[in-house]
């Protein structure tokens, strides 16, 4: 059994910014290795505490035999993280995506171990036919290979409703180190948090928000429950987010402010407007008006405008910006220039080539 490196676990438990990284392609929709390396260097220079690779934002299609990009992408990103760690002496939290039925997920976990990843983010997508009992068993099988981060994926991109008891059992599983909450639903988020809180391993399981529609509030909120006459509190330690794959340097800055604010008796008033600004930006980037159909292309569009991608190409040619999405992106870029990384990127992009 591979377990997360101790320093990486400490960083993960304390909380950090973990972008879910996109896939960089050229105009022929082939893997752009140089572009992928440049993008990883941007995230690390921005202060991200780790990276999530081969997840939804990286496009699940990388696993299809006609592309066979899962291993190359894992390898390239791992190389860049190793180079950064060697150069700076810092430790990064290395997370690889794993999905599919148990047999596939175990193979992907083995691949993650091969390339030095600390944990896998275990997606429930595409498994609607499996009972929660079998889903928990799948988690246990993968956790025998590598540390696991559970994942509540929103239904709009292939997730399913999962119960309080499911999340309690996932949190009870040895070598599960965290759970990412991304149902984009308050009720379902509460089920997850409560399940983790009531687990016998509650103190060993860190929660990360993936609710891109509620990032700041998730990070500010203490969740308090009562069990056996005692108060139990759980918080989201950090974020593992597709939204943080753009404007990452600024995200690191406001995340630090949020962490400091959590120590105060009252939330600073300026963080509440920030919460709505970030959500408004996410609505444009993730194409909420069109049921998230342009969510990956929207992220690519921001990176293209900043010179970090040459185009917005996805493996699926039909996956692109929705009608009206570009105008929405224009609107939020004008409205919230203080959230943008444009100047930071202009100053440093030559260092990442």
Which descriptors apply to this entry?
353 residues, alpha/beta, TIM Barrel, two-stranded antiparallel sheet, 10 strands, globular
The major β-sheet equals:
8 strands, parallel
What class, by secondary structure content?
alpha/beta
Number of strands: 10
Give helix % range: 40-55%
At the fourth CATH level, what is the homologous superfamily? Aldolase class I
Terminal CA distance reads: 37 Å
Coarse morphology = globular
The CATH topology name reads TIM Barrel
List SSEs in N-to-C order. HEHEHEHEHEHEHEHEEEHHHHH
Oligomeric description of these chains: single chain
Q: Any guess at the CATH architecture?
A: Alpha-Beta Barrel
Number of domains: 1
- The strand order across the widest sheet is 1-10-7-6-5-4-3-2
What do the pLDDT scores average to?
A: 96
- Count of helical regions: 13
Question: What is the beta-strand fraction?
Answer: 5-15%
CATH class type: Alpha Beta
Radius of gyration: 19 Å
